[in-house]
Amino acid sequence: MQRTLALLLAFACTALLLLREQRRFVLATRPGDSAALEAYCGAPPQGSEGNLTADGLKLVGVLVTIRHGDRSSIHSLPNTNTTARWVCRPVGSEQKQAAAQVAVVGLDGSPLYRPLLPRTLPGRHGDCAPGQLTPRGFAQHVALGRHLGRSFAPLLREAAAERRANSSRVGVYVRSTDYTRTQMSAAAFLYGLLPPTLRPPLAPPTRIHTCADEAAEVMHGVGLAASSKVGSEDGGGETERQGACALAGSLARAQQAAWRGGDGARDALGGLFGEEARAMPPTHVADALHSLSCHGMPRPCSQGGCVSAALAASFGRMGDSAYCAWCGNFGSSRSSRAISGKSSGDQGDLW
User: Which is more confidently placed, 229 or 112?
Assistant: First the structure.
């Protein structure tokens, strides 16, 4: 059997990973639970990957699916009396090296120009634009790459040897969505993962494959999708777009409309920041709040007061519940019945 390294890195915001993040957010926002917050924001890479427990087995390939690292918030609450700041520039030397050791290409292998380094707000002295990888996020993926690099060192050495014997062999395949934060997360992970024999100057830059046509990006799904590209670039916020399947999009809208909950928390938020804040999806509120927590920033305040730890935790739970209703069990049996009265299995067949 030919020994190859099939290492696929898929950096995408899947529903399962988002759900996991929301559950961790609930833990991280419990009043006084600093240990849970640290576990969420700075958990060290650990595990026993690569250990085979049965005789006669040989590891010949690895598939790794990972989300991006820590980022600046995409959403923010209106009518606050403070402005949150995440500093993205100047970037460190390691981040520059990591960006220089990869090349972003289309799915057909054609070169694509992507700057990789985080985008900043105009005139804000290096402050991150919305949804940009922070230095903490870069360090998280370097650390994770080094952890897995130690775990899979024999496989990586084989890949390097095969590359030396046949320069046309790729060995490592990387796939990412077309956002700066995901591509730079991939670059950071590779910087930690790959030995010098698989990185420049001893090897060509590792290619990160991406789909430049966001509407055709299968990693976003085929129904409704959140897009971080406002205009032609990411870093300007987030919009909702329709995917390739109109039926999936209409069902997703109906599922969102069928979810109810948290009126008391919404009222409390509206009392602080107005009706616009009250109408925000709970997942957007959770993003605006949990992005602050990992950087030690205070929760948002208005003239009427500040978001309490209990209110922040409520929106974490609401975000978790909303994702369960929208995504769990092919859209959740409850929301599926609310749409058409069909069973969840029947509704799931339409996705």
Answer: 112
